[in-house]
Amino acid sequence: MLQINIMKRDETTRNEREEEFENKNFFVNVERTLEGECEVEYTINDMKTEFVQWTKSINFQKCNVRPEVQYGIRPREFKKIHDEKLFSTVFKYKVVGNRDEFLIHDVELESQYKLMPLSKKHELITSFVFNKMTLVYAGKIETQISSVRRDRKETLIYNFDWEIAEEMFAMTGDEKYLYRIPEWKNKVEHIEKLLTLITRHVEEKVELETTHMFARLVKLLRLCREQELIKIQRFFETRE
């Protein structure tokens, strides 16, 4: 959400895919976001206060790379839909300062995805996301975050390899897929706490939160190694 190209860099003129207009209040650029490497459109509007509003919208009709995840059974005659008009993502930044030195005061995100059904009998599903971040403090850096080193280089584009690895481990039980998933150091402790809470809820009264806890429990159990499952079984036996 904090990715903003406030300075119209010279690289845009070197890349044929990137186009820049003469209008000072509008220009386009190709950027890598979580939703892919797409053309983005910037619009600048002066506000009555000291702030300037930068509006950034992603043009899904001009994307070089898009992340994609498909789940469920697909019929043989299923045709892939490339209608990018089904997607919309807009960022609104409130910025103070100039292009050499600026500060983002707050940012709003509005994203809408329309999901096509497999059958014409079903309705179109719309997923709408609204998020907002507001600056709380701007001053001296109190703590320093250590740099993270990884052998594998990654980009900002969303990578669904973790999700596929989770599904493959749940299906096969092969622990080689666990090495592609971030390690949960305290999985067993989380499971024990969830089991205790679920047992208490069931004994007293089943509520909506019980269903959510059970879903989290299933997800954690699917990521457990054999030794971790044995430890959980012993936890149950000692409780009895």
TrEMBL record:
Identification of the protein by name: Vitellogenin domain-containing protein
PANTHER family xref list: VITELLOGENIN 1-RELATED, VITELLOGENIN-RELATED
Keyword annotations from UniProtKB, A to Z: Signal, Storage protein
InterPro entries given in the database record: Lipid_transp_b-sht_shell, Vitellinogen_b-sht_N, Vitellogenin/Apolipophorin, Vitellogenin_N
Domain of life: Eukaryota
Domain Vitellogenin: 1-238
SUPFAM superfamilies: Lipovitellin-phosvitin complex, beta-sheet shell regions
GO molecular function: lipid transporter activity
Keyword Signal recorded: yes
